Amino acid sequence: MAGVLTVPAPRDRRAGRLARLLGTRIAASVVVLWAAVTAVFFLLRLMPGNTVDVLLARSQVSPQVRAQVIAAYRLDGSVGTQYLAYLGRVLTGDLGESYVLREPVATAIGQQLPDSLALLAATMVITVVASVVLAILGASRRPWVRSSFTAVESLASSVPPFWLGLLLLTVFSFTLHWFPAIGSGGLPGLVLPSIALAASAVAVVTRVLREGLLHALEEPFVVTARARGTGELAVRFRHVLRHALLPVTTILGWMAGSLIGGAVIVEIVFSRAGIGRLTLSAVQNRDMPVVTGVVLLAAVIFVVVNILVDVLNWIVDPRTRG
Amino acid sequence: MNADVPLLSVTGLEVSFASRRDTVRAVRGVSFEIGRGQIVAIVGESGSGKSVTARSLVGLAGDNASVRADTLTFDGADLREFSAARWRALRGSRIGFVLQDALGSLDPLRHIGSEIAEPLREHRTVPARSVPGEVLRLLAEVGVPEPDRRARQYSHELSGGLRQRALIASAIAAGPELLIADEPTTALDVTVQRHVLEVLRDRTRDGTAMLLISHDLAVVSELADHVYVMKDGRFVEDGPTRMVLDAPRHPYTRALLAAVPVPGVRALRRPERLAQAGTVLEAKELHKTYRLPGRARLTAADGVSFAVRAGETLGIVGESGSGKTTVGRMLMGLLEPDSGKVEVDGRPWTALRGAGRRAARRRIQMIYQDPLSSLDPRYTARQLLEEPLQVTRTPAAERRRRVAELLDYVGLSADLLGRRARELSGGQRQRLAIARALAGEPDVIVCDEPVSALDVSVQAQVLEVLNRVQARLGVAYVFISHHLGVIYQISDRVVVMNKGEVVESGDVEKVFTAPEHPYTKSLLAAVPRISPEAETIPG
């Protein structure tokens, strides 16, 4: 490439670029969410049987309620009318009514969401702290350190969360009685489930982060930093860690997806309330309004996480701020 | 501070790197001294051990390096007995280190201001609240304009010269008594190199000693009081700079000096040019503008016109950003000009489509600065040479004959055919790239900085190969380089580019001896020379 011009980039210009980045990402997300809503709509129609019966999920209701459902979803109209009606309802935040739970889907999800979010938040904290610490400890040239870390990581990433959950329960709840075995109550109840959920994420993130650290430690700017008298820990935290984070941000999106899936299993194993439990019972009861509500929620979470990943990348790597 | 002992004293320094298979002895017993305020240089080619020597002095030779010495003292303190903590206290505060390649040596994710502040904070050189002000003072001292704005920029946002200055600022921040500069100007244009050398020279005026590591004898001659010539881990010769450069005793020093391409001094015998050579490639009024982030635009080519005749070398010389590579890519038909056209044998690229375009492609080949990235790393030398022959459906027996012929042109041994690019030396790689370019029997080879990454002795060999090939095959070259000495050696005619424009063109002797344009004059004036009258700063 010929020509190097250094163009001044004052702070307000950078803020403008961030706004533009966010604008395009959000616009793209709207398209993704619209596609998700559309897919859900046609999925409902593809279910065997009458759409009214699908929505009512075999629950016994009076003919009046049945007529209400038909009116609310415009099931007497054409496909186009039904689609527009459905889209309009979702846009106004109305996810429909669960006739099994006899309450609005939004309420059902809203009740369960805090427990799931607490579990996810605890898992994220464990993942971040544990992977950074383990990666920095494991970023060594010594072959035995590397191979032992690799072995533990392979093991941890291949253990299924439900099995690890059962193992943790057996040891720490039933045998040692350190942590409660069931329920969502408070912080002690969070420890074991979040460890079970975080284990494989920690293994994967640690590996990526550790390879990133080892790679970045070879860079010339590390020699420069050491030549300034900077200590090893400062070199790792101040310089190298940020470089190693770059590949991690790209797997964060994938991780969010796998955590949502894993949360369902962990909530069942630990008998916790939460979206996972709600989803499982909804699937068992063929409670389609709840299932579609959860699908839309998952899509929203996924989209939000991906926007956050882009923002994180923007913060970590000034070179992507073009 | 101890005034009667030398600042740095080294005897019998040995550095070896042990790997699972073997032990490499990079430094094999070198001894030298640096007095206070003295500028000492170590000159050598890549692999000579000069950088390892420099790094050993700050305890950064590497994890798997074993460093031994009979004496290794800095200001009377025995460095061999230093603990990690004492090394850290020494580095940055009493010995500053400027590494090669400022782009890689400054953390790309941090503002350059934070990079310069690091040694200040690490060694508590100034109180924490004065650090920002001190950073600005340092940036100003090394000649960075608008320090307050630059301090908040990242290294990739700075030009090569400003980056190098910022790196120097971070090395001198804590006021070290010794500054080690490892190839401080290697990647820079001549005019920028001149400024950076002045910055370094200014530093030594106040009594800072300097150890300069370089492959470039001309750079050394401008700065150093005393020079050590290094080869294969040993010093083959040393002495006051003037004496070593004017009257070299060791054959290696003489060979090194002879290999330096100097504008105005002919080292190669150029082949006779044909009287009525036809035009094989022509650029007509090429314009190309790039859009930059934001609304800025960069004009890389602004009405560039020239013709390349059969069997000649047309040199394109210019500094980075002058648009010479853009022009090279347009000649290759790899990049469409915004306006204007490139004609191959009188037919413009734009008129060529499909098979015609592919046929024309074979007639113009390209070689690059870094053959390691332009040659497929998974291919052996034989596969690399056979690939272009397979494209033209050459029968197998004929292919073998042609491969042997190509090797002969570039002076490579057939033993190397089984090796991959990584397993070849820099010079062998570039010869392989030339042989591959020749496989399709081209009329023109566009050479983009083909010898810029090579040591002077290897550089001279590759230029010799190019010269010989041209004499034998009559292929024309478009030779793109920032190096005026190299351009002078290989070119018949030259085009001088600046900011996308051709400022001067003509016969190489004429342009180099009687330049007309002020820009050409300034370029030629900035070339560091090994000349007897060059002043050196007394130690």
Write the layout of secondary structure elements.
The complex is a heterodimer of chains A (322) and B (539).
Chain A: H1 11-46, H2 51-56, H3 63-72, H4 79-91, E1 97-98, E2 103-104, H5 105-138, H6 143-158, H7 161-175, H8 186-217, H9 220-227, H10 232-269, H11 275-284, H12 288-316
Antiparallel strand pairs in A: 1-2
Chain B: E1 8-18, E2 23-34, E3 39-44, H1 50-56, E4 65-68, E5 71-74, E6 77-78, H2 84-90, E7 95-98, H3 102-105, H4 112-122, H5 131-141, H6 147-150, H7 160-172, E8 178-182, H8 190-205, E9 209-214, H9 217-223, E10 226-231, E11 234-240, H10 241-246, H11 251-259, E12 279-291, E13 297-309, E14 313-317, H12 324-331, E15 339-344, E16 347-348, H13 354-363, E17 364-367, H14 371-374, H15 381-391, H16 396-410, H17 426-438, E18 444-448, H18 456-473, E19 476-481, H19 484-490, E20 493-498, E21 501-507, H20 508-513, H21 518-526
Parallel strand pairs in B: 3-9, 3-10, 7-8, 8-9, 14-19, 14-20, 17-18, 18-19
Antiparallel strand pairs in B: 1-2, 1-4, 1-5, 5-6, 10-11, 12-13, 12-15, 15-16, 20-21
**Averaged pLDDT of chain B:** 89
Uncertain residue segments of chain B? 532-539
Name the shape of chain B in a single word: globular
Sheet having the most strands of chain A: 2 strands, antiparallel
How many strands, which pairing sense, and closed or not: the largest β-sheet of chain B? 6 strands, mixed
Oligomeric form: heterodimer
Coarse shape of chain A: flat
Helix share, percent of chain A: over 70%
What's the count of strands of chain A?
A: 2
